[in-house]
Design a protein that fits this description.
This is DYW domain-containing protein. This protein is mainly alpha-helical. It is built from 38 helices and 5 strands. Among the domains are: 87 residues, Serine Threonine Protein Phosphatase 5, Tetratricopeptide repeat; 129 residues, no CATH class. It has a 5-stranded mixed beta sheet. The termini are far apart.
Length: 669
């Protein structure tokens, strides 16, 4: 039939032309009416579909099913219920199935009321129909009614794989991941492609020993005909990346013959998760070479890679290739505000922010956070005040309090904190951090004590307190906090390791190197966790270069250290004093205070930039730990000596070092 051909090809012009030439008799033919409904809905002409449907006098269940299905596909599921309210015939199994789907899609009060009523009134002969039961399970799981979904599942006499999949997907949607794996172990029918996707997703969410074992075993046993399935491969790569098995994920990616954009997205997202964001740009180049067009999800992942790398060149490179229709989507705009903020370009972040027409909570939070990261606390507070109360959420409060903390704005922080009616653990932690940075330990401790009267203690609060005590070189308080942390959080090994480093650094800053060494080695051995290696990276001639402290692996190492020596000499000539309190260990033979302090990774990558030709006037560095006090002071001196701008993003914030020898943080770090 001609109309059906136009529906398949989505040839709207030809289809409407055929419709106009139909005789009145043909227009009243139910088969032709159904075909026209399919045509309009497929071509997204909702108005004509609704008009035609309203003109049909004898509407069958088939007509309703066609209409309901098309409205759901066009993201106007609410209209399904409007038509259902007018329905004068009892829905058959096909119509009922679509109605359950509409309820699951909408998932609002109206949908819940209609869905549960339909389920209660469903004829008995439908209740053992697997397709119906599966739709009902899916609907109930979307409502969050897990117990009712379980009752229906248990009532099914002969379960097929589609029913198992619906139940496992429901558990995942309700974040009951262990139950999904429990159910998977009970399956006694042949698995299909959806099963593999669902189980890999559950394993990726759990990421515990059981999930890793089960996920890897299922992947190893998976039939060859599924290994080129894009949906399964995408889920498997995502799972392996969540496990931290980057090599296995890359191997699987390379083995896939025909790759869709989603598989590239899963790999790039995995690189972001595993701290290898720079690899995303090579993958993006491969996508370009193979004419694979990224969709909104992939662009969002690439913007995230730029945010993590912290390098402006990557930002410009990606930004210049995002199509305008994608750039105008609010999710992308929000990501761009975040990206420019995290890469130190506050003006570009503001430009994107100003372009957003309907700003949502994430838009404001991203901009407030950008101000805070770049030491612009007053601007963050001002924007927070501009934000309407109905848009503010707990992230808004955290971002503005964090901005106050990094700018030393105690009065503003106190005022905002006191205005917040619901103070979450994270909000209180941020206020504790603000007070601790200003060495107001009694007030910070009181906040913790008040919180613990009604809540379980939070290790992050104690870490904020300990960090402030370290900056204050308050040995007694630091020891007291660390001992308390060990008692309260004996299994929080990674945080305790950070505590060990902070406390041993205090001993070192007081010249007690042997005590620092003994404490550090004994505690780390007891905890059995390795210390995170400090790394700094920069971009040289389009390539990311990453160095650690006292690194000699770079081909230009001799020139790097020669440049460091020249900078050191000029700094001393200008009266700079190298502060030994920032040395965290005793000196080895042939080492000096200057050589130990000047071997820190951020200084090495700054020197690497300064030996390039031509010598850059703008240098950008990112690192995975906080910048130490010595490096902060020395970088101010370097910027003044070299008359250049240096941007250093550490684990907490962004420092803009100017040619006048000042830093944007005004020493609040």
């Amino acid at each position: 039939m001609a109309i059906k051909a136009c529906t398949i090809s989505k040839d709207y012009k030809r289809g409407t032309h055929i419709q106009q030439r139909l005789s009145s008799k043909s227009r009243n033919n139910s088969y032709i009416q159904a075909a026209l409904l399919c045509f309009y809905l497929e071509c997204k002409d909702i108005d004509n579909a609704m008009y035609l449907f309203s003109s049909i006098t004898n509407k069958s269940n088939y007509m309703y099913t066609v209409m309901f299905k098309g409205l759901i596909a066009n993201n106007v599921a609410e209209k399904v219920f409007d038509l259902f309210d007018e329905m004068k015939i009892e829905p058959d199994q096909f119509t009922l199935n679509i109605l359950f789907n509409a309820c699951a899609v909408l998932n609002n009060n109206r949908a819940m009321k209609i869905g549960k009523k339909l389920l209660d009134e469903m004829p008995e002969n439908y209740r053992n129909h697997n397709v119906m039961s599966t739709s009902a399970i899916n609907m109930l799981m979307k409502f969050g009614d897990v117990e009712s979904a379980k009752r229906i599942f248990r009532s099914i006499k002969v379960k097929d794989i589609i029913t198992y999949n619906a139940m496992m997907k429901g558990y995942i949607g309700n974040e009951i991941f262990d139950k999904a794996l429990d159910l998977f172990e009970q399956i006694d029918v042949k698995l299909d492609d959806v099963t593999y996707i669902v189980v890999f997703n559950a394993c990726a969410k759990l990421c515990n020993d059981r999930a890793m074992k089960m996920g890897k075993e299922l992947l190893a046993k998976m039939p060859d005909n599924y290994r080129n399935h894009n949906g399964i491969s995408t889920s498997a790569i995502d799972m392996l990346m969540k496990f931290g098995n980057v090599g296995s994920a890359e191997q699987m990616f390379r083995s896939i013959k025909t790759k869709g954009a989603g598989i590239y997205g899963a790999l790039m997202n995995g690189y972001n998760l595993n701290g290898e964001s720079w690899k995303c740009f090579k993958i993006f180049e491969e996508m370009n070479e193979k004419d694979i067009i990224p969709d909104e999800i992939e662009w969002n992942i690439l913007i995230g890679a730029c945010s993590k790398s912290g390098m402006l060149r990557h930002c410009h490179y990606i930004m210049n290739q995002i199509p305008l229709n994608i750039q105008n989507k609010i999710r992308i705009q929000n990501a761009l505000v975040d990206m420019w903020g995290k890469c130190g370009s506050i003006e570009k972040a503001k430009n994107v922010f100003n372009l957003v027409v309907d700003r949502d909570t994430i838009t404001y939070n991203s901009m407030i956070n950008a101000f805070g990261l770049n030491g612009m606390g007053s601007q963050a507070v001002e924007l927070y005040r501009e934000m309407s109360n109905n848009l503010r959420d707990h992230i808004s409060h955290i971002c503005v309090l964090n901005a106050c903390s990094h700018a030393g704005l105690l009065h503003e922080a106190r005022t905002i904190f006191n205005e917040i009616s619901l103070k979450t653990e994270s909000i209180i932690t941020t206020m504790v951090d603000c007070l601790s940075r200003l060495f107001m330990f009694d007030e910070a401790q009181k906040l913790i004590d008040d919180y613990e009267k009604t809540h379980t203690p939070s290790i992050v609060m104690y870490m904020s307190l300990l960090s402030g005590a370290r900056n204050n070189r308050n040995r007694n308080l630091s020891e007291k906090i660390y001992k308390r942390m060990k008692i309260l959080f004996p299994n929080a090994k990674e945080s305790l390791v950070s505590g060990v480093i902070l406390l041993s650094n205090i001993y070192s800053s007081l010249g007690e190197y042997q005590e620092a060494k003994n404490f550090r080695s004994n505690q780390l051995e007891e905890l059995g966790v390795k210390v995170k290696v400090g790394l700094s990276w920069t971009e040289i001639k389009g390539q990311i270069v990453q160095l650690k402290a006292h690194d000699h692996s770079h081909p230009q190492s001799a020139e790097i250290y020669a440049k460091i020596d020249r900078l050191k000499s000029k700094a001393i000539e200008n009266g700079f004093i190298f502060d030994s309190s920032w040395i965290t260990r005793s000196l080895n033979e042939n080492e000096t205070i200057e050589s130990v302090l000047c071997g820190h990774s951020e200084l090495l990558v700054i020197a690497l930039n300064l030996i390039q030709e031509p010598v850059p006037k703008f240098i950008q560095v990112a690192k995975n730990l906080r910048v130490c006090g010595h490096c902060h002071e020395f970088t101010k001196v370097i910027a003044k000596i070299e008359q250049c701008d240096i941007v250093v993003r550490d684990a907490n914030r962004i420092h803009h070092f100017y040619p006048n020898g000042q830093c944007s943080c005004q020493d609040h770090f």
